């Protein structure tokens, strides 16, 4: 039974490596919705990879582009949207996410996030001497913000993508 609050969009939030893109794509397929990823939309629009945008325009420049993408994407209907890990930092993004869809926070420990992201160089905020410490700092700042916007918190620790998807579908069926 679709709830009144649910216009049919699912928005995924969480830190880098939480599985927003991976789980989001599978969820969209299973739920018959169109999948979008704000990071991919920004890259398609600019024709540049995210590390390049950070290099040329700084994090602030990227955040502006991200806010525009979130504004546009949250207007769409019947979608699953994987948001960039830092999208919740902007209160306008948080309001748009809450207003236009059902928000799912995928969480994991900083240690697990590190294991899932350490082989990939496409996350400029993790290109530091100590990416594990950086993930812990980001977790401390952002975990409350993810919880603030979330309708549902999913612990992804020690869960395969497929078992998470099954759990998520069950929860969504019950709650939405
Ligand atoms: N539940 C899980 N268990 C183990 N590995 C996972 C899980 N979810 C995702 N992964 C793996 O972790 C890596 C990062 O996942 P993904 O790119 O989906 O994260 P993300 O939340 O979209 O990150 P970002 O915010 O940087 O875009 C991928 O290699 C993915 O296969
Ligand atoms: O956590 C973050 O701030 C980021 C996460 C990624 O999804 C990208 O949006 C970018 O690398 C920044
Ligand atoms: Mg992603």
Automatic annotation (TrEMBL):
One of its GO terms (molecular function) is ATP binding. It catalyses: shikimate + ATP = 3-phosphoshikimate + ADP + H(+). It is found in: Cytoplasm. Coiled coil: none annotated. Its cofactor is Mg(2+). Monomer. Catalyzes the specific phosphorylation of the 3-hydroxyl group of shikimic acid using ATP as a cosubstrate. Belongs to the shikimate kinase family. This is Shikimate kinase. The gene is aroK.
């Amino acid at each position: 039974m679709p709830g009144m609050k649910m216009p049919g969009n699912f928005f995924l939030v969480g830190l880098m490596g939480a599985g927003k893109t991976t789980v989001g794509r599978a969820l969209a397929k299973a739920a018959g919705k169109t999948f979008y990823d704000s990071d991919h939309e920004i890259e398609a629009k600019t024709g540049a990879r995210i590390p390049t945008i950070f290099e040329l325009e700084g994090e602030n420049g990227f955040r502006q582009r991200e806010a525009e993408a979130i504004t546009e994407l949250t207007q769409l209907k019947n979608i699953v949207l994987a948001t960039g890990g830092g999208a919740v930092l902007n209160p306008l993004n948080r309001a748009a996410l809450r207003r236009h869809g059902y928000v799912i926070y995928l969480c994991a420990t900083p240690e697990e996030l590190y294991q899932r992201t350490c082989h990939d160089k496409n996350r400029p905020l993790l290109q530091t001497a100590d990416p594990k410490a950086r993930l812990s700092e980001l977790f401390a700042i952002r975990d409350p913000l993810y919880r603030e916007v979330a309708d549902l918190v999913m612990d992804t620790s020690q869960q395969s993508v497929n078992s998470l998807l099954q759990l998520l579908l069950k929860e969504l069926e019950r709650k939405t």
